[in-house]
Specification:
Elements (H helix, E strand, L loop, with lengths): L7 H18 L3 H18 L4 H13 L9 H4 L7 H8 L1 H8 L7 H8 L21 H16 L5 H15 L6 H17 L2
Helix pairs in contact: 2-3, 2-8, 2-10, 3-7, 3-8, 6-7, 7-8, 8-9
Length: 197
């Protein structure tokens, strides 16, 4: 494979290899990554992103949690409250993913998107405390898509869980989430939910 300009098939295979490695370290991450990518792409389409940006969005959404490979498995599996040091370690996964992708030059454009996928619209996110439109749009999309998927993974009645997840997204529009991204999400959510069942 030409690392500088692999074919689309080679790129997809490399992404699948990276996701398999992540899933071995933290089971369930591959499915989460694929769902986040489905949500992200649908939101990106609704927002009218170009084909080139859509491809980068898909790659970044699939690889957004790759840095968890460099987080101790016992911490990823820990139940209950995390200490301040453990929270800091978990937060480091965004920058660790960014550095892990440095060995794949064709993913350079995704690295910054992945780095900022936990930034918040109000500036209270990490790793850099960016706010508003200083956060790359693709990162804002991935943030919402990931949060929705995590909320949907809770145990219990599926309809109630979905209602609670949607209420949380609506409540956090303007604080955690870009209101424009949240609006696009609500337009596409009924359709995309059918794709991940």
């Amino acid at each position: 494979m030409d690392e500088l300009d692999p074919s689309r098939e080679e790129r997809n295979q490399k992404i699948n290899d990276l996701l398999e490695r992540l899933d071995l370290h933290s089971p369930g991450e591959r499915g989460h990554a694929k769902r986040v990518a489905i949500y992200s792409v649908a939101i990106g389409e609704e927002l009218g992103l170009s084909d080139e940006r859509m491809l980068l969005l898909r790659y970044a959404a699939e690889l957004h949690d790759l840095g968890k490979v460099r987080v101790d498995r016992s911490l990823l599996e820990k139940l209950g409250q995390l200490s301040d040091d453990e929270i800091e370690e978990m937060h480091a996964h965004a920058t660790r993913a960014e550095s892990a992708l440095a060995e794949h030059p064709w993913l350079d454009a995704c690295r910054n998107l992945i780095r900022h996928h936990h930034e918040r619209w109000d500036g209270a996110g990490y790793p850099d405390g960016l706010s508003g439109e200083d956060i790359p749009l693709e990162s804002r999309i991935i943030n919402l898509a990931e949060t929705f998927d995590v909320l949907m993974m809770r145990e219990g009645d599926a309809v109630l869980i979905e209602d609670l997840a949607l209420a949380e997204i609506e409540h956090c529009a303007g604080s955690q989430f870009d209101p424009k991204v949240a609006e696009a999400f609500f337009k596409v959510q009924p359709k995309i939910q059918l794709l991940v069942i």
